[in-house]
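Backbone-to-sequence.
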């Protein structure tokens, strides 16, 4: 078992479950997001990685009049990833590469309702493939499904997600 700090950059190409980082209405015409997370993970020799992270999401909101506005959110995330041992391998005693399945839970600390821990909660699962880019960096592409519950306006957002990430571990 290895205790390993990490930094991860994620680019969600599609995340239908993700609500706008502002209270609506008005509804933006579109939004794009990039995530930067940091935390601590436990990597086992049995193909498991468990990570606890602080996640910052940077958004660009596009409005119907053509204007663009930057916004941000801050989340916590606990994820557990399993790599199939027959098709995967541990690299440099730091991270696994190969096919994986992952589950995650988290809560928003700051964002849609300013500072309001627990106002939104996220549960998700995905599967994908992690590959080595350099000795300390891995990349992954994943496809999954997420559910976000907004406890203030009692709405649930859910849908597919497709993302690419780079992890420095």
């Amino acid at each position: 078992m290895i205790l390993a700090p990490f930094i991860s950059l994620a680019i969600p190409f599609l995340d239908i479950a993700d609500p706008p980082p502002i209270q609506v209405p008005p509804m933006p015409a579109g939004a794009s997001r990039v995530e930067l997370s940091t935390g601590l993970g436990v990597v086992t020799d049995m193909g498991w990685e468990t990570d606890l992270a602080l996640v910052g999401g940077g958004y660009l909101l596009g409005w119907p009049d053509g204007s663009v506005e930057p916004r941000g959110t801050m989340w916590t995330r606990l994820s557990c990833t399993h790599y199939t041992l027959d098709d995967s391998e541990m690299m440099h005693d730091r991270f696994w590469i190969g096919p994986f399945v992952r589950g995650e839970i988290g809560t928003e600390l700051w964002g849609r309702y300013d500072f309001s821990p627990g106002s939104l909660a996220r549960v998700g699962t995905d599967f994908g493939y992690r590959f080595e880019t350099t000795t300390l960096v891995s990349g992954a592409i994943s496809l999954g499904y997420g559910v976000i519950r907004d406890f203030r306006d009692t709405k649930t957002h859910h849908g597919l997600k497709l993302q690419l990430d780079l992890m420095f571990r």
